[in-house]
Amino acid sequence: MGDSLDWKDLSADEIVDRVMKDIHAGDIILFHNNGLHTAEALPIILEQLQEQGLTAVPVSELLLDGDCYIDINGIQRQK
Q1: How far is CA 26 from the centre of its chain?
Q2: pTM here?
Q3: Which class would CATH give 2-78?
């Protein structure tokens, strides 16, 4: 999981750099609806994700259905 730190009023470029520096498939990135430059950064991030072959999806699509647990490495597993 990554934190955009957009609540710290980082510039759009700083938010983009922070989010994109180490992103992987399945990562969850935290954004806030009142970040000063979040709306400016998001289209850039989404375009860069697409260029890397990644797609933004709702968190609900990342979660397993049914009875699950989080293992010692922070990975969600089916029971």
Answers
A1: 8
A2: 0.76
A3: alpha beta
